[in-house]
Amino acid sequence: MDKMEGASEPRKTQCQDTSKCFQLLESILDGELENSKEALKEKLAKCQPCFEHFHLEQAIRDVLKNKCTKQQLPPSLAESIRSKIQEMK
Amino acid sequence: MSDEQRRKYSEAEKTAIFDGEFMPHIDSMYNFGYRLTFDEDDAKDLVQDTYLKAYRFINSFEKGTNAKAWLFRILKNSFINEYRKKSKQPAKVDYQEVETYYNSDNVNYQQTSDLRAESVKDMLGDEISNALNSLAVDFRTVIILADLEGFTYEEMSKILDIPIGTVRSRLHRARNLLKVKLKGYAQDMGYETEEEEDL
């Protein structure tokens, strides 16, 4: 994705419409747009602000997903719920 | 809900649904509760409350549908209706107001941060968690649902009772606020950010 396949010219340093592009990129990253691979590849190859925004947004989603501290489930919780439900029956 | 719509499950079916579809989500539910309240006991109460409600209203749950979203919705409502009322926490930003201002059509997707992807990738779990935890609860919630729990915009719309456009704009805004926090950490760590030259 980082490679500029077949593109001889450098990426544009200014994006024509960051508002539209960034919203599109964020929707793609959120999995809300299907079949967007080709369009995405082309966009990232051509536009530096889009390229940077995409990678930053991707990095943020990745660290949130993989690095956030998780709390250990208290061992007695499930059991306590089950016994309360028994009482309800 | 009419009697016809109410699916009457037998006791055995109820138990099967509860054990097979509800209980597998207890870990995510507890973490959601904890990230909303930052308190183990409150998180436990919220989760227990949610599961008791889920059982009581099990007939309005359609077997085989999205149990996780259904449970998250109950937990979120319990949090808003019960926990927040009795909580001594000062009221956070009223964010219906925020939302009116930053409604879905007015969100401006400009570059708002000079944070670099590389410095984000190098951050520690604690830093990411602290940044997330420092956000107002309503912004924190959308990030938890989308990025930590993997809910779609549509599922989030149902969990939070807000339109999909609002989910999108709230999420965008929440991540921008997160970037501001992360940028602060990046600078503290001595990572170069593009803006530093101008400071």
Describe this structure in words.
The complex is a heterodimer of chains A (89) and B (199). Chain A is an all-alpha fold. Chain A has one domain (18-88). Chain A is built from four helices and no strands. The model of chain A has no long low-confidence stretch (mean pLDDT 87). By secondary structure, chain B is mostly helical. Chain B folds into two domains: 11-86, Orthogonal Bundle (Rna Polymerase Sigma Factor, Chain: A), CATH 1.10.1740; 95-191, Arc Repressor Mutant, subunit A. Helix content of chain B is 64%, strand content 0%. Chain B has helices at residues 11-22, 26-37, 40-56, 67-86, 95-101, 117-121, 125-133, 137-148, 153-160, 164-188. Mean pLDDT of chain B is 85; it is low at 101-105. Classes of the chains: A mainly alpha (89), B mainly alpha (199). At the A-B interface, helix 1, helix 3 and helix 4 of A face helix 2, helix 3, helix 6, helix 7 and helix 8 of B.
| Global shape of chain B | elongated
Overall structural class of chain A, as computed from helix and strand content, comes to: mainly alpha
* End-to-end separation of chain A: 57 Å
Q: Quickly give the CATH architecture of the largest domain in chain B.
A: Orthogonal Bundle
Percentage of β-strand residues of chain B? under 5%
Poorly predicted runs of chain A are none
Quaternary structure of the protein: heterodimer
For the record, the count of structural domains of chain B works out to 2
Structural class of chain B: mainly alpha
CATH topology of the largest domain in chain B: Arc Repressor Mutant, subunit A
Overall geometry of chain A comes to elongated
State Rg of chain A.
22 Å
β content of chain A, as a range?
under 5%
Whole-number count of domains of chain A = 1
Task: Look at the structure and give the CATH class of the largest domain in chain B.
Answer: Mainly Alpha
Overall pLDDT level of chain A: 87
Number of strands of chain A: 0
* Helical run tally of chain B: 10
How much helical structure, as a percent, in the residues of chain A?
A: 55-70%
CATH homology group of the largest domain in chain B: Winged helix-like DNA-binding domain superfamily/Winged helix DNA-binding domain
Largest sheet of chain B: none
